[in-house]
Design goal:
Elements: H1 8-15, H2 18-21, H3 25-42, H4 47-59, H5 63-66, H6 73-86, H7 93-101, H8 115-128, H9 139-148, H10 154-168
Helix pairs in contact: 1-4, 3-4, 3-8, 4-7, 6-7, 7-8
Length: about 180
């Protein structure tokens, strides 16, 4: 399987966020590319589907930096909708918003109208779990992606944020977790 390390849409979108994301930029960019690759490996996608996945991947966690909050899903959706509107792609808003909203859903997302939502959830889970959950992907491919696209501290960033959340809310899941 081929590992995509450069994609025009991803590069263009993330370039606009580089300054705002700051020191976490390379880590987040790597996460976006790894999960994008995992999604593409899980299902043969059309070019339109690849574009939707790329857009959703860029925006799915962006609220961490745009709103500086652990409840980052709503601001991430706002930023994605703004981008889609500016790009004349409003017709994709519902699907991409669902991809973002449900990417940390614990259980399978079931709605046949939007198969990319479940695909996106599974692709993110592979990277979020550092490959512990493979979603059926070969371990060798997961390793290949991880070697081609460095972590650059992304998971340390996540652990720091999780630690801060659980200090304040030891018995509550973070607000982005959906059952």
């Amino acid at each position: 399987m081929h590992v995509e390390t450069a994609h025009n849409q991803i590069e263009t979108i993330l370039a606009d966020w580089k300054e705002r994301i700051g020191a976490d930029y390379l880590g987040y960019k790597g996460h976006v590319y790894r999960m994008f690759n995992f999604c593409l490996a899980l299902r043969r996608c059309t070019e339109e589907e690849k574009t939707k996945l790329a857009i959703a991947a860029c925006f799915h966690d962006i609220g961490l930096w745009s709103a500086h909050t652990v409840d980052y899903i709503p601001p991430s959706i706002i930023e994605a909708r703004r981008y889609l509107s500016d790009a004349g792609l409003q017709a994709w808003s519902e699907e991409i918003a669902l991809m973002i909203e449900m990417h940390h859903k614990v259980r399978r997302y079931q709605d046949d109208r939007y198969p990319l939502v479940e695909l996106f959830r599974r692709g993110d889970l592979v990277d979020f779990s550092l490959g512990a959950f493979s979603s059926g992907l070969p371990r060798s491919f997961i390793q290949q992606v991880k070697q081609a696209i460095p972590n650059n501290g992304f998971h340390k960033f996540l652990l720091k944020g999780a630690g801060e959340w659980f200090k304040k809310h030891p018995f509550s899941p973070p607000p982005f977790v959906k059952w």
